[in-house]
Amino acid sequence: MRVDLFDFDLPDERIALRPADPRDNARLLVVDPNDRANTLSDHLVRDLPSFLRPGDAVVFNDTRVIPAQLEGIRHREGAPGQQVSATLHMRSAPDRWKAFARPGKRIKIGDRIQFGHGETVCSLGTLDATVEDKGEGGEITLRFDLSGPALDEAIATVGHIPLPPYIAAKRAEDERDRADYQTIYAREEGAVAAPTAGLHFTPALFAALDAMGVERHFVTLHVGAGTFLPVKADDTDDHKMHFEIGYVDAGTAVKLNAVKARGGRIICVGTTSLRLIESAADDDGTIQPWQGATGIFITPGYRFKAVDMLMTNFHLPRSTLFMLVSAFAGLDTMRAAYTHAIETGYRFYSYGDGSLLYRKD
Fold it and tell me: What is its biological role (predicted)?
């Protein structure tokens, strides 16, 4: 499909720089493409239980954001030091991370990068790495001098929360972001971007879901920085998705299949949990235990196998995520929904408001 089909104009003032307080006070646009009389309706996130039924199951991504934005100095024999930054996006070994580097053109295989500028993170006083490989679009592979838990601790010390570029361009990361840019149920460390639909949930909202008999289940997909990359191709067939690591354990798969068997619905919180569940599902909708790297690219025409509803934030124009929601609820429906959201003051992107989508029949 042509990528420009997924374009729209977003006024700059619609980009949220802080989350709602309390979190479940964010607005929620309910989109039901199968209800012609009431396709769009305006609510708050705390109203979510009124759209669910006892026996439904809500699926969350419990990945935890790490401070994956690193600043350092590139060293090369015969050349002066060069200020560089690296955003880690996927771990490939205990001592290796794939990262997006800037300025990418000035980095070569074999370069040494010293992160931390003297902060005490190891016996050497810095976190050092060697550029082991270089790909397209500024992607590099870093082999760190530390490994495993020692590397994790060093990254946590010298790293910064990798705020999305549309926020970072307007303000610096601060201490609030360490809490704001993390779901209340985050557990498995490894993401460099938050599963932002989950940022709306509070203990009170969890209690309301529990009280009405809605199940809660957790899967893990470590969101990578590739989620922020624009689609530069003119046709979706020419776009290359970046892979992300995740898993669905056997117990969760059994419980979700039981939900479907008794007529309950699966509601995914965030496109990350949806992509993981769809990666794990057979063609007949049976969810299997699954682990590995998924690069599933969902565009209109995709047949959803397991997910019935999706709660998600408002996404960037010409993005893979806007393509996904258009596949789920219909392109015309989602274009109308985004027009309504812009005109009525919804807040967009990571810290913005949410939407609840029914899958189009």
Answer: Transfers and isomerizes the ribose moiety from AdoMet to the 7-aminomethyl group of 7-deazaguanine (preQ1-tRNA) to give epoxyqueuosine (oQ-tRNA).
